Amino acid sequence: MTPNKEDYLKAIYKLGGMEELVNNKQIAEALQISPASVTEMLGKLKREGLIHYEAYKGSRLTPEGMRAAISLVRGHRLWEVFLMRHLGYSWSEAHEDAELLEHITPPRLTARLDKFLNYPAYCPHGSAIPHPNGQIDRAPLQTLNLLPVDTASHIRRVTEEKELLDYLQETGITIGSPVCVMKAAAYEGPLTLDLEGKRVQISYKAACQIYVDETAGL
Hints:
By secondary structure, the chain is an alpha+beta fold. Helices cover 43% and strands 18% of the residues. The protein has 8 helices and 8 strands; from the N terminus they run αααββαααββαβββαβ.
């Protein structure tokens, strides 16, 4: 299977395509390609038995497609753990190189990497690492922009996108950090955070890509 096809399967998986239909627009936005290219590739994946595809409705992974997607995601996130834990990679560096390594990692290597790392549950960006059977340990989360002012929580996950990762790393945001929104400017303005006793300001757009523990009543 080509890396391009694998990227489609991984995108459909991450968009919820194990349980529900994912529309073409979502896939195009996730992969940053044209809708026409998406339609063409989905036809190929359907013929190969990797997805169920319904025109004007969307796509969902078949059992074979699920196995391929889970293998890719496991490999990617385990490599991120290895690269940051043992080779001193930054957040964005680990994500970039894991994107390459995931396509050339056979299941045997993934299993041994998992064992070597002592079976981590999450990647360095806070995303859950699927078990070999596809099961994922999930905790209820909400985006930081929805956290009420003066409410304490903890940062649990960030969206894996290079520019965002570089931006957040410069602010000192890390997974597990306690956080409290001190002030939220009007009209989707910046948020002022108390981050482990340090006052930090981030954009509203970035706050929408940072996930924290879900607070009661929301």
